[in-house]
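Hi V.,

You were right to ask for the full record rather than a summary. Here it is.
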Amino acid sequence: MKYICFGYLDVQQWSTLSQSEQNARFDACFTYDEGLKKDGHWVGGEGLQGPDTAVMVRLEQGKVSVTDGPYAETKELLGGLLILEARDLNHAIHLISNHPGLKMGPWEIRPAADLDQMIRESEARRAKAKGKPAS
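Predicted structure:
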């Protein structure tokens, strides 16, 4: 089963580290990620640029609104995401519990939703609305 893991960065704690300490933490994370890949648990992952590069897009009174930056001020910023293949939630927790990134801040783990059936049903409804048989 796939699990989406959101890694947060404790900004206050991170800012107290020297450049060499920050580099060592990154190196440890990338080394652990290589092990996840080797063992078949790595599905994908990406680091995120800082919140100063973010925009929020929402619908307000029927119109699209775009604002700069993250929605809420927090001492922890979303730093990246990791997609794991794990037997179950306990296995995903075990994999993240050993990740060196845990020293940088907390992780949120959520099972990925299987949308296959929902997509097939939507395709059938849309095809019916167009008067075509579903594929």
